[in-house]
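For consistency, the fold was encoded as tokens, as this record shows:
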Amino acid sequence: MGKKKKTGQLHGLSDRTSDIILVVICLIIVFLVAYPLYYVLVASVSNPYDVYAGKTFLLPSGFTLDGYKAVFADKSIITGFLNSIKYTVVGTVFSVVMIYLSAYPLSVKNLPGRKFISIFFIITMYFGGGLMPTYLVVRDTGLIDTIWAMFLPGGVAVGNMIIVRNFFEHSIPKEMIEAAEIDGCSKWTTFIKIVVPLSKSIMAVMVVFSMVAYWNDWFTALIYLPGKENAPLPLVLRNILIKSSASASQAGMISGGYAELSKLTEMIKFSSVIVAALPMLIIYPFVQKYFEKGMMAGAVKG
């Protein structure tokens, strides 16, 4: 009896030790992931000279909001913010609808040509026409300088579509779909009233993926939206940073001007990152529960 008790104590101690080790590892990973963003936040309100001197490891040094003032002093920042909201909302809805409309048919195993269509989609993940052919197609279809240039060229994210297809195949009960069809529901009615309500978790994942992609997309706007009034927020911030960098370079010819403008440029650089990332950081906690559940269900068979 004494030996069994001693063995149980040792086993309990071993479990506790392993839990402590796992917690420590998780804390280290969290620190490695979260600290870079925290450092950018601290640097955005610190004196750049103190940042380069290593005085902003955990707390701000020489607190200042000059970087944010310079960013929001540009009148185009509000227009860019509104444009980003418009592109993100419309693009997310369009992308999720297209993903659902392509993923659900491919999840039906008796779909004629299912294998060929799947291969056709997968090929596009590895091969593309390149920037110039794509630009010529967009130009010849009349999409240049229109909102649709942000969505139509990449309307279906194939990687996301595969995740949703796996979710439909392995997480939607086939018996429910068969019962609905026996009761007289058309395939479209079954899709709208059964499949969509049962896939809210994976939908949240696709919404987050699409929102982040469209919110951070500046290159598409740079190529297809030449007008400054159509520029999204990331492109506006990029232009502000380029403008401030150019001013700093020009100020090098003026005695005493370079240091201050270079300092302001560095503050704008850090502030722009926070301004661009903050909306997504605010939204994510509200969909985190669905995000985790949907990601696991869509990525793993069974």
